[in-house]
Amino acid sequence: MSGSGDVRATLNYLHRTDRRPYLYMFDPPEGVAAAWGEIHPVPDVPVRNGRLLPQPPSLHANGFEFHVQDTAVTDFYDPDQIARIYYPEIERLLHAVTGAEKIVIFDHTLRSIEKFKAGIKGMRPPTMNIHNDYTEASGPERVRDHLPPEEAERRLKHRFLEINVWRPIRGPLQDNPLAVCDSSTLAPEDLMASDLIYPDRVTETYSVAYSPAHRWYYYPGMQRNEALVFKGFDSDRSAKTRFTPHTAFNDPTSPADRLPRESIEVRALAFLPLK
């Protein structure tokens, strides 16, 4: 589905302050706010239709790529199908996209507005604030979390990526589509480390301060055989693109009778060949 042209939308950045932002991923202690951060809604931000670009974006040049990939999964809410069918499909895709010698898929998130409102365990709504899942500190943490200690330390001496693969569960997706920032337009000072607090640990994500230099893209009307692949972290500090801020947003051109958003995102580590 080619979709319409570019749109202009409100995107939710974060104001930069002296206080460190945080978000509890569980019920916080009594009297403690579940989150802190001064949201900075920026209206009228151009979000360009990636389908209309003369040159497709790439992980290397822009931090993200668009792929058509059929899936044999018939029910994305079936954990057995995710483990048995979908993870191997994503692993094959990421080997092809990154050239990695080893892929480690470590989690996935299901987002369904209807199922979240119904209180179904494990369901999340779309995230409407701009963020990047990993930081300079938390990217290497993921390697230590998911590899044996000796292998982790060996791998950390070489280049690796954290990659997200996002796709709609049903389409055409018109409700709260995903926008990704061209990470070549990102400056280091745009990123703000923010705490993500779990019952057993605290890790970091990046919140993002507004810059008019940012270029945003989306792919309107995505179907279940289409996926966005984007970097959450690149250990190569000389790389042109290292982090890819992203957010759901309200598309002002979406029809009133659109299907409620349903999507799945998979996160993986991609270890490039050892040199």
* Gap from first CA to last CA: 42 Å
Q: Which range does the strand content fall in?
A: 25-35%
Low-confidence stretches: none
Number of helices: 5
Shape: globular
Structural class of the secondary elements? Answer: alpha+beta
Describe the largest sheet: 6 strands, mixed
Beta strand count: 16
The neighbouring-strand order within the major sheet is: 5-14-9-16-6-7
- Portion in helices: 10-25%
Please provide the ordered H/E string of secondary-structure elements.
Answer: EEEEHEHEHEEHHEEEEEEEE
What count of domains describes the coordinates? 1
What's the gyration radius in Å?
18 Å
Question: What is the typical, i.e. mean, pLDDT?
Answer: 94
Task: Give structural notes.
With 275 residues, the protein is an alpha+beta fold. Helix content is 16%, strand content 35%.
Summed up, what is this model?
The protein is of the alpha+beta class and 275 residues long. Helix content is 16%, strand content 35%. It has 5 helices and 16 strands.
Keywords:
275 residues; alpha+beta; six-stranded mixed sheet; 16 strands; 16% helix; 35% strand; globular
Write the layout of secondary structure elements.
Layout: E1 7-14, E2 22-24, E3 35-36, E4 39-49, H1 59-62, E5 64-68, H2 79-98, E6 102-112, H3 113-117, E7 123-124, E8 131-132, H4 138-146, H5 149-155, E9 160-168, E10 178-181, E11 191-197, E12 202-208, E13 216-218, E14 226-234, E15 246-248, E16 262-271
Parallel strand pairs: 2-11, 4-13, 6-7
Antiparallel strand pairs: 1-4, 2-3, 5-14, 6-16, 8-12, 9-14, 9-16, 10-13, 10-15, 11-12
